[in-house]
Amino acid sequence: MTPVEGATIFQKFSEAVKDLPAWIFSAFATTAAVLLFVPLANAELPMEYRPWLVISLVLFGVLAIFKWVVVVLRAWRAFQAEARVRKTFHLTPIAQQCHWSVSKQADGSMVTQIVANFAVKNQSSSPVGLVGVRVIKPKIKGDVLHDDILVRQQHGRMYGTAQVSDYRIAPGTTLPGQAMVMIRGEPGGSRERVLIGFEN
What we know:
This protein is an alpha+beta fold. It has helices at 3-17, 22-37, 39-43, 50-86; strands at 89-104, 110-122, 132-137, 144-152, 159-160, 174-184, 195-199. The longest helix has 37 residues, at 50-86. It is elongated. The termini are far apart.
């Protein structure tokens, strides 16, 4: 056999196995392992077959491992691609400009105010407008007195909302914004961290 013929055979072999599912290689490797290591099957096996079974076990075992790795990687990439499609925007909070406080009103009630400044990046292929904000953590029982999201206009210094000013984030761009929520009530539980959600 010439080197050219060997390369051709290897190429044909590679093309033949690349489209076969992983479970076929797993089945061949498992069968070879059973014939080699299970006493009842091994006792009936002629000695001249055993070297070929060892080669089959190694070959199909390696192919099965590589095939399953490919299956897992494809599934992971598909999951990441789907997650990127679902996630239309990304927020980066500006920690030094995020704060919240609780103040007592003239009628004796307590009002919690939460302010968050952030940078928002549009990860989709169409303009995105932020239209809603809500407090997820901590839990605050009471009426929402005020909630809005301001985003800087695309080319300028003015800030406005998506509903009134129609300020939206263009695809692939990042703009500064600010969210404010005022709720009549006090937070319960831990007060160390605030988690808020946004809607577009």
